[in-house]
Amino acid sequence: MQKLLFLTFLALSGMMACGPSEPASEAQKDTTLTQNVPADSSQGANDLAESAYMYSFEEAFKVPEKVDQLRLRGQNLNQIPAQIAQLKKLRRLYVGNNPQVNYAEAISYLVKLPQLEELELSENALKALPQDLARLKQLQVLWLDQNPALNWEQALSQLKTLPRLKELSLNDNALNTLPVGLENLPTLEILHLARNSIKGTRLNFGLLKKLHTLNLDGNKDLDLNPLFESLAQLPNLQVLLLGNCNLENIPENIGRLKNLEILWLNNNQIQNLPEEMAQLKKLQTLHLFGNPLNPQIQAFLKKNLPHTEVIYENGGMMPN
């Protein structure tokens, strides 16, 4: 459960930023509820000296046996050097907001890294994914936020060849529908689609059977009826983020999402909740802050979801 709470907070933290933050380390995923900011902005001088190799190719190449992550967002890089292939323990690479890099060339070097699990390519003005990306067979997490010109059909066709891909982030890409091919990623467990313009009735999530966390925060034209019908086909869906979506009503078929554990409905225009909310017996946390709620809602939730922790205004937690 602690991991699920982290994942939810991770997604929400991403929503609040102008651009994507670097994801947290494996240890942090197990022990904290905070998302990493670029570490060079918060570390003390001693810590930075000890781990300077994480923020510089020059320093990393001095101690290649130590380097398991590189955090190079927004460093105005012109290239990723071929020597990166020496970093055989590299697991996480964050190179977002470096649009001058030739990523086709760069990824031809990355395929030589046997442990690379996480790759962040946000804000890089990508129009197509390099063909070699399909050779990163160990890749589990891919960040493609803020690349609105990307050819999504081509990109997702490549991603379906990645057998270990578990988490995909497509925040802030001006998407007005689900990209064609998304349904062909059956290994996905976490999907971020925050701050797009997704709408309409063709919301086919039903084939993503392993999906447990879906972030739709900030999509202001959602049609919840077909959305919930599609999500009802996902047996593992536990975390759903629908904050900042300009919602006024929650349809009755929300009751079909039987396995939800964490639900974010924050910062909408919701006044009432349907009686079918009472069917969400596994719901552990419900975020309702930022809504003009009917005063009777609290009594309704206390009666029907007595074990659910409800977060109302000002982040105040009120267990029923």
Mean pLDDT: 86
Q: How is the quaternary structure best described?
A: single chain
CATH superfamily (homologous) name of the largest domain = Ribonuclease Inhibitor
CATH architecture annotation of the largest domain: Alpha-Beta Horseshoe
**C-alpha Rg (nearest Å):** 21 Å
Q: In what range is the share of β-strand residues? A: 5-15%
So what's the overall shape?
Answer: elongated
Can you describe this structure in just a few lines?
This protein is of the alpha/beta class and 320 residues long.
Characterization of this structure:
The protein has helices spanning 2-16, 26-31, 45-50, 57-60, 103-110, 152-159, 224-231, 297-304; strands at 69-71, 92-94, 118-120, 141-143, 167-169, 190-192, 213-215, 239-241, 262-264, 285-287, 309-311, 317-319. The radius of gyration is 21 Å and the shape is elongated. It is an alpha/beta fold and 320 residues long. Helix content is 20%, strand content 11%. The protein has eight helices and twelve strands. Strands 1-2-3-4-5-6-7-8-9-10-11-12 form a twelve-stranded mixed β-sheet, covered by helices on one side. It folds into two domains: 1-38 and 171-320, Leucine-rich repeat, LRR (right-handed beta-alpha superhelix); 51-165, Leucine-rich repeat, LRR (right-handed beta-alpha superhelix), CATH 3.80.10.10. 41% of the residues are buried.
